[in-house]
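Folding problem:
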Amino acid sequence: MTPPTIQDIGQIAITVKDVVVAKKFYTEVLGLKLLFDAGPNLSFVAAGSVRLMLTTSQGAGEAGKNSTLYFRTSSLADLYRTVVDRGARPEREPQLTAKMPDHELWMAFVRDPEGNLVGLMEERR
């Protein structure tokens, strides 16, 4: 059996002080496409095939000093087990995060050696 692989970067979380101001910058100044808002402190824009999540720190660090890479895979549970077995510190096991119109978004989280959060995601259709 071949080990699960990371396909690409699916999302990058950018921690900001003010989501409204950040959304205006990324959409109006940079010209990125607004995908959707998910409440007052969460907005998603598209940078090509990569989704940018604009969010407040929500207790996870200081704005502008921590962002999270989300790596897309087609086998989240297998990849999560594999990277934890290889030494990643587990943060959150795979779970359903959101039901979208055309897929379910599943996510898991691990930490790198410096304590940075790394997201693993699978879009189940």
